[in-house]
């Protein structure tokens, strides 16, 4: 086993919330080279939530802030709560909690998606960023009342919701004004070993006198965090009148998502039956 793979697949040995793996528990001596690589770091139990931010329950990144009474919050939460402590109303966001930052910076842990096959060992302060883009993170089924969460959402949609999905190659998708989204999938390719892509054509509110249309990808995330560009056009209007060229963000759940770029379709364009025909081209 080479050095890299040995390190990546290593699992923290102790059930305590943190411990040092620098010594072999059976001999009490230092282990091989791999042990040398990680001995400077402390292992954190991946389920040890007591060290996460008490507001968003996410792992801290490199900066930890505290109010004058010692209540802590991550940088993103300080902004979210308008720099007023969630516990005592004192100002928070100026004072760093450096001893805690130093301890957290030394800690290693594993990705929370290890049960889905991610073998990455990550620094605790990089855990949040890793998990946001982890290639083994599962996707939840967007269809109402379906509880599927897994890695192959594409196969699940084709197997269990084939009456609901639209194929991406179809020239156009009919979208009713009241549909919050339509599911778009690639056709199943019997030779393909990779996972098929899933997209949602979102039909958002939040704009006056019309709807906001955009596309998001529900995985798999493209290699190297590449972007998925697309062109969308609403048919039936003047050619090119309602069209958009944008990139589809990769998201894992719809909740809380707001499209930054969208195609505005005014109320007047939804036709006598309250629907439009939308064509989408990926790439
Ligand atoms: Zn937070
Ligand atoms: Zn406080
Ligand atoms: Zn991961
Ligand atoms: Zn489902």
From TrEMBL:
Coiled coil: none annotated. Residues 16-26 have a biased composition (Low complexity). One of its GO terms (molecular function) is zinc ion binding. InterPro entries: SINL_plant, Znf_RING/FYVE/PHD, Znf_SIAH. It holds the Pfam family Sina_ZnF. Residues 1-34 are annotated as: Disordered. Residues 1-10 have a biased composition (Basic residues). It comes from the Eukaryota. Keywords: Metal-binding, Zinc, Zinc-finger. Gene3D superfamilies: Zinc/RING finger domain, C3HC4 (zinc finger). Residues 106-162 form the SIAH-type domain. E3 ubiquitin-protein ligase that mediates ubiquitination and subsequent proteasomal degradation of target proteins. E3 ubiquitin ligases accept ubiquitin from an E2 ubiquitin-conjugating enzyme in the form of a thioester and then directly transfers the ubiquitin to targeted substrates. It probably triggers the ubiquitin-mediated degradation of different substrates. This is SIAH-type domain-containing protein. It comes from Panicum virgatum (Blackwell switchgrass).
